[in-house]
Give the backbone structure.
Amino acid sequence: MADAENKDDAAVGSEFEKLLEKDNTRIPQVGEIVKGTIVAASKAEVKMDVDGVLMGIIRGPELYNEVEEFANLKPGDEIEAAVIDTENENGELELSFRLVGQEKAWNKLRQALKDKSTIKVKIVDANKGGLLSRYGQIEGFLPVSQLAPDNYPRIAGGDKSRILEKLKSFVGQEFEVAVITLNEAENKIIFSEKDVWNKKQRPALDKYRVGMSVDGRITAITNFGVFVSFGENIEGLIHISELAWQRIDSPSAMYHVGDSIPAEIISIDGAKVFLSAKRLLKDPWLEASAKYKSGQIVSGEILKINPFGLFVKLDEEIHGLAHISQLGLGAKDKLGELYKPGEVKSFEVVSISPAEHRLGLKLASEGAAPAPAEKAVAAEAVGEASAEEKPAKAEKKEKKEKKEKSAKE
């Protein structure tokens, strides 16, 4: 009985092989890509007809439902799949959409890197360094430094927990990015949203040149400056040193998001624009030498204490530095114990360099009273006059002596 069944199976197998040979059909091997027509599709499995002779099945993780191309298949659709087993328990081809999808995704990533074209990735998670991104089912990374200005987490004070909170708000969203690093051996892919943004901004930015003035609106404030939007959504940075002529410790103390601010373009580096607000203002140091003179006693408010000395405000626009060596400290004296921010002290101007925006101070002697700038200027003028009178008097005296000598002779 068993022998008869075996003979029947062998006969069927032989007839099937002959049929394949007659139709020039070959059994695809593991790893090959086959094209077929969907016969039935559900969330659990998909069956497809291959060449009208073979039946293939895709199931479980091989369905690759996460990718749109394979998520909504219906009978009659033509699709490609990879062979992972030539015969399963039911005599069917075991196929995979996942392998085909991943290979297609890798090919598109390679092409995007080569052509510098853009692709869309889905944000699946975030950490303090950036966004974990997915293209198809291939994982990549979008660093914080490669985010477009609109999505860059500019948090005042650099609070790491708030930065991470901002990054996590992007989970589930799709970003348009460029591929900037692709290392298949290490499975390392780096994306850049900033490159895509820069490419789009280039035409609008070509209208601007260094030296031009723009009217902007503050979009973000950081410890190192403020970001300003102007023109056709172009964004530039005003560094803290370019906000005002006087020293600024915290931009947030002077500005708010949404404030209007005029500025001058001082540098354009690719798509990076650097601005200056102070260059549109009159430089107060141009008149500093008329207000302050060496030797003048002035009243100043201590703004900040540093290991090397005191930053002192003489007026709203001119600040000076009293170096630690000019404060008469004893061997055991500590700067932070003797002076406090907000205190007003008398200082003597020891040097002034308007071109370099520098003014040096020292602690004034006890009892020395601050003098108005006018008196200091007048005193200097008197000194200059006296210096000019001395040679004149000497010359007059010399002439008189010569005349007396001639008379005696």
Summary: The CA atoms of residues 33 and 325 lie 80 Å apart. Residues 207-280 form a domain with the OB fold (Dihydrolipoamide Acetyltransferase, E2P) fold (CATH 2.40.50.140). Helices lie at 2-22, 68-71, 97-115, 160-168, 193-205, 288-291, 335-338, 373-408.
